[in-house]
Design a protein that fits this description.
By secondary structure, the protein is mainly α. It contains seven helices and no strands.
């Protein structure tokens, strides 16, 4: 690996090590038009190496609304809830399917709402802020690990050891996340099916006529 490629790799690691996401309170608390949403997402994620070079498009946003991955806009106006949804989707989309992302957000929201029963707080705010925390911890850890692997790379290797490490770690962690989510959602489906069967059985037992009393 020559000095120019080593410098480039180091630059990318440093860029990732400094990557942050705006917290809920830093997102604009006002109605936004589509072009403003697209510009803001690009502003927040444009420097992140994992962000799609094509960026977020209006057709993508409309498709997420159609699939009910994000709430529908009101009179074509979007809020910071939409903005937070889209930031999460853009970060996770390279490694998780839209279906998995939707199910993951639904599970997280359901859990948070049980914890904050009776509170006026927006349920998506703690979910989004926690996502930002985990995102930064993960990105910084990966950047640091890759940077420490770099000196061990062979000088004449076209694909240095550091790149192998980053790619294989990404593949392994993606496989782990996908397998776990698949098993988790399959188990949830089975539980829901069992609960519906039990509810149906209980309803049938309640509606069944009582046996006639032949005692005199």
């Amino acid at each position: 690996m020559n000095e120019s490629s080593e410098a480039l790799f180091t630059q990318i690691c440093q860029q990732m090590a400094g990557q942050t996401l705006p917290r809920w309170e830093a997102l604009p608390d006002l109605d936004l038009y589509m072009d403003q949403v697209l510009a803001l997402v690009d502003h927040y994620l444009g420097d992140y190496p994992g962000f799609d070079e094509k960026g977020l498009t209006a057709s993508m946003v409309n498709n997420y609304v159609k699939l009910k991955v994000i709430p529908a806009p009101v009179r074509k106006r979007y809020t910071r809830t939409h903005l937070a949804h889209l930031i999460i989707i853009c970060v996770l989309k390279p490694c998780l399917s839209i279906t998995f992302i939707q199910q993951l957000l639904s599970c997280e929201l359901a859990y948070i709402r049980t914890q904050e029963a009776g509170q006026a707080q927006d349920s998506f705010a703690p979910l989004y802020d926690r996502f930002c925390d985990v995102f930064e911890q993960s990105v910084h850890a990966v950047a640091q690990a890759a940077a420490t692997t770099l000196p061990a790379a062979e000088q004449n290797s076209a694909l240095p050891q550091a790149v192998y490490y980053a790619a294989l770690r990404a593949q392994a962690e993606q496989a782990l996340a996908t397998k776990y989510l698949s098993a988790l959602f399959d188990a949830q489906k089975q539980q829901d099916k069992a609960e519906k069967t039990e509810q149906k059985g209980s309803a049938q037992r309640r509606s069944a006529p009582e046996p006639a009393n032949h005692d005199k």
